[in-house]
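Agenda item 2: 2-(butylsulfanyl)adenosine complex prediction
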Amino acid sequence: MVMEQRIQQLRQQLQKASYAYYVLDDPIMEDSIYDQLYRELDKLEQENPPLITPDSPTQRVGDKPASQFISINHNIPLYSLENAFNLEDLQAWEKRWRRYTEEENIASVEYVCELKIDGSAVALTYENGLLIRGVTRGDGTTGEDITQNVRTIRSIPLKLNLDNPPPILEVRGEAFLPIDEFNRINGEREEKEEPLFANPRNAAAGTLRQLDSKIVYQRRLQFFAYTLHLESTEITNQWESLNYLQNSGFLVNPHRKLCRSLEEITEYFQQWETDRKELPYMTDGVVVKINDYSWQKTLGFTQKFPRWAIALKYPAEEVPTTVKDIIVNVGRTGAVTPMAVMEPVHLAGTTVQKATLHNSDRISQLDIRVGDTVIIRKAGEIIPEVVRVLTELRPPNSQFYQMPNICPECNSPLKRPPKEAVTRCMNLSCGAILRGSLVHWASRDALDIRGLGEKIVILLIDNGLVDSIVDLYNLTSEKIAHLERMGDKSANNLINAIEGSKKRPFARVLYGLGIRYVGSVNANLLANNFSSIDQLSQASFSDLSSVYGVGEEIAQSIIDWFSIEKNCDLIQQLKEVGLQLETTQTKINNVDASLTPFSKKIFVITGTLPTLKRNDAKVLIVEAGGTVTNSVSKKTDYLLVGESPGSKLTQAEKLGITKLSEEEFLRFLKSE
Ligand code: IVH
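Presented output:
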């Protein structure tokens, strides 16, 4: 047989076998045979590289890890879904959409009910039947190009199973990790002492953003397709589109149902509330979609959601367990959080051993004691909480629990400031505060020092090498190379990463300082309004609280922070070692940003801009001295309007806010 033909035949067979295994869940070939045929194909392709095609089964894993992900504007935004938490919410939704159509008596409406898969949304583009791009949901408007990674998902076809594929087809769906796979990955991570994923959803999202597609390939993500975007089509409703997706080679969840009344939807919801426990993947509710596309079109979208769909969520899962101990954890702000250590128990897809008890008021309210049987719940948060204590099961002689009055880390007295619920360690030199502040300083949104996680921070502190943030900048490779599990290479990498952090802009340094209430958004707002740390430290309460977005609580917290001498010393030392403690004025065509027409102006962006990505527009505005906010208000100065603008446009028109097209905006920038 001619070699080209053999290659074709091998590809078809492997493709069929993989489809049967991963999509139909009905294997037709033994693993060992698959491996042999795969190796034969791989060898033939290696010997004849020009014959390699992107849809070959050998091309699922990329050769090189990506250095970063590129952001991509979604042609059609990825909307989120409105949540209903009970059947009354569902009825209210039905009334709302009927009222919106102004035809309250539409007789027969079909709803497609689907399971709500707890994973991460992904948008796929196919050109002439070939997968050309996979993008994360991101903020719904812009996502990240993760094509290399989605290619590794075996239930995503690299080539559509259609004789006449359309020129362009977009598919959306949920990438997720089956529970078994999630447990396997976490088991491996535990062995390697790596941090565990909190739940399958986080693990799926984290895996999709892995730079090395080999790791993604090993993690065996799956994908359920649920949305089809196809121009000029015969398809007129959601039900047909799911069938089309299935026929094109996608895995479509089999538990979908066409319902004709709220009663039928309720029945479906209640059935899956029980049956979902048997599924090999996590679901967190059901999604109800009006079937007919023409109704969907009439109803359209609010700013965030389609009016024609709703997610009916299951209540948070609750399980009983017993309390083995009650401990307290000291955070980077000195806040002392009591935690219950419990008999390990399976809850919402993960094994849980600790639950937060929030503060001493909550402890008194619960009257929780060691030995108690408690009900714990996870309502989407990572750390579960104790809902109630089953006092009827309490062992005799149990002791009332009292919060410690000395810090378990540094033995200094704990205080609970008046009017606050939180107990705090007030010793600024407390080891827990130092450890937490260093970890926060090095975190991704702050100074982003790769390799400086909690374990290394502890190692540095325990070896007496670091006693404050500034000590990091006096470390050398020689000083740290001898530390346990370090070595020359890691030592050099760490020192380089620390050195690199000196280039991070002022806003990130400000966030890294860990001033209470100054998160990364507020740090950006402050850095836009006060061009240096000196200006910020001298600002009065009214200067601070008059900044758009900065309230009185934040203003007071900043004043309190600068009133502590130790903090002012730290700033001085950070200046000396070369951290960025002022805004580098960006010049646009050599004009100082504070002099541009956009200086101090508040922008809102709506719709898809013709050439700029939303993030790039944001950067240009901030560089020109302006601020970008999410919602239109009286304070908004300009609305930057792109294609298919949302309701922000109507709101801005009502308030008489100046609109700018991208062209006008760029012209303005250039003219200065
Ligand atoms: S439809 C405009 N269908 O739930 C249509 N979403 O909470 C929007 N999800 O972002 C999505 N299963 O990531 C849809 N069968 C399903 C889904 C589903 C899970 C996710 C999706 C979405 C989120 C909204």
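Discussion summary: Residues 586-591 have pLDDT under 50 and may be disordered.
Owner for follow-up: CH.
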